[in-house]
Amino acid sequence: MTTKGQSRLGAGAQAVLGGGAKTKGGASASKTAAGASLLASLQQKAQSVDVAEAPRAKFSKIAPHPDNPRRLVDPSHPKIQELTASIKDHGFLQNVVLAPRDALLSQAPELGPLLDPSDADFISLIGHRRCISGPLAGEEDVPYVLQTERLSRAETTLIFLHENRIRDDLSPIEEAMAFRRLELEGMTQEEIAAANKPIKQPYVSKRLKLLELPESLQDAVHLGQITPTDAHSLRRLPEEAMVKIFQDYVDHLLAYTEDAAENGAVLDSISTRINRYKADREIKQRLDDLRSLLAERGIAEIQPVSLWPDTHHLHRIPESDVDEALAAGAVAGAVVEGGELAYYASSPRGTAETSVNDIDEEGTSDSEQESGTQRRPKTSKSLTVTPEQAQQRHDLHEASKLRQEACRRMLNSDMSAAIEKDILADATLFASSRLDARTAALVSRWMDREIKPGQDLYSQFASRTHLHKAAIGVALAAFETEAGHPKYEAVDYPEHLIRHIQRLTETGHHELSAAEISKLPSKP
C-alpha cells in the first residue's frame, strides 16, 4: 500500500528513470519529467517494429484508455481531418501502442465498466487519434506493438499528459482532470509539476481549482468560451452569481451585432461584469447596513415624494441639524439615498409653527404682527400633484437613467481633449472637493473598480491615466447627482447642467427626451 507522499510510479517507470536521488526542488529524480521519459520509452517501443511487419488489431476491438484526459475528439477537428487525409494517401506510418485488456484490468479492475467498447481486447496507450482517423479513412485495422510491462494509472496519465501537451491538444479542464487523477494516485502537486516540466506547482494548483466550478462553467472553459483567468475570477463569487454573469455574457455576445457596435453598444468582458457585480454588491451591503441602522433607531423608511408631493424638499433636514432633530424626536422618517441617509421632518422646515392660513396678504403672520417681527413673504402652494406634474417627474427620472448610461459610455470612449478639459473646467467650479458615497458608488460602477469615498483620489490611483479618467468620472457623477435633485421638477436646469446634457448629446452618447428638451433653452 502506498503511504502518503510515496510515489505511485511503478516498476516500469523506475526501470526507465533510474534511481530515486533527490533533486534540488525536493522531488526524487524518478519523478522529475517522468511524463517525457515514459512517453519516450513507449515511442521507442513503437518504432522497434517495422510498420509493415507489425501485427494489426481491428478498431472494433480497441478501446481508448479511460484515463486519457481528452474528453472527446471531434472528427471534424482540422487535425483529425488532416490525419485522416494522410492515412488515405499513405496508410499508417507509425505503430500504435496497445495494452492487453486482461493485463490492464488485473491491475485496475475499476476501469472495466469504463471501457468502450466493453468487449475490447486492447486498450490504446499511444495513437488515440490514429484510432479515430483510421476508420474515417476507410481502414478496418491498425499496426500495433504491445506494451506487456504493467503501467500504473499514474504512469499512463503522465504519458497522456506529455503526449497531448506536445500537440497542445488538452483544454484547461482536461489538463485539470489529469492532475486530479495523479492526486488520487498519491502524487503531490509539487511531484505532478516535477513530472511534467516545465510547469510549476502554482500552475497545477490553479488548474485543479477549475474543477471547483459548476459543470456548465467547466464546459465553457473546455470549449474556450471563457479563459481560465476569467473562470478563476468567477470562481470567487457565489455560484448563483457566477452562473448568471456567464449566461448574461453569452446572451450579450449573441445579441452584439455590427449595428449595435455602430450605435455605441459596449461589449463588456467577463472581468468587467465581475467588477460591476462586486461594486453593486458593495453598494447593496452599504444600503442594507443603513437600513439596519434605521431599524435600530426605530426610524421608518419613508417615500417623501408620496407623503409631500410638492413640498418634500422642504421637509428634508439639513445634515448639520440631524443630531438635534434625532435628539428632539422630530424625525418623521428617512430615505436611503445615494449610499447615505437623508432625514425628513413631519413639517416643512421653518414652517412648523405657522400655517399658510396664518399668513396675511403682506406675508406677515398673526404672531409676528403681535411681536413686531417681520418674516419674508410666503406664498401658498397647492399640495396636490397634477397628472402633468406626475408625468413630468416620471419623464425626468427616466431621462436621468438614460443619461447615466450615456455617462458610462462616454467615460469609456475616446473623448477629445477639448471635451475632457470642458468637463473638468465646469467640475472645478461646481463639484465639491469631498467625494461622497453616492458619487463614489456611481464612478465605481462606471469604471468597474472600487473608489472609496472620503479618500484622496491621488492615493487610490497609481496611473495618471486612471486618475484623469476618475476625475472626469467624478465630474460626470457630480453633474448627474445635481441633475437628479427634486427641485428641478419645478425649475429649469442651470447653465452647468445644460452644458453637461449638451455634451452627452453632442458626443453621440445620449438622445434628448421631451422632458429634457423642456428644461433646455430653445435655440434662437
Structural summary, described in words:
The protein is α/β, with parallel strands linked by helices. The strands form 2 sheets. Strands 1-5-3-4-2 form a 5-stranded mixed β-sheet. It has a two-stranded antiparallel sheet with strand order 6-7. It is built from 24 helices and 7 strands. Strand 6 and strand 7 form a beta hairpin. The termini are far apart. The longest helix is centred in the middle third of the chain and has 28 residues, at 270-297.
Write the layout of secondary structure elements.
Elements: H1 11-17, H2 34-47, E1 56-58, E2 62-64, H3 78-90, E3 96-100, H4 101-107, E4 122-126, H5 128-136, E5 141-146, H6 153-167, H7 172-184, H8 189-195, H9 201-209, H10 215-222, H11 228-235, H12 239-255, H13 258-262, H14 270-297, H15 304-307, H16 312-315, H17 322-328, E6 333-337, E7 340-344, H18 366-371, H19 387-411, H20 417-430, H21 437-447, H22 464-483, H23 495-506, H24 514-517
Parallel strand pairs: 2-4, 3-5
Antiparallel strand pairs: 1-5, 3-4, 6-7
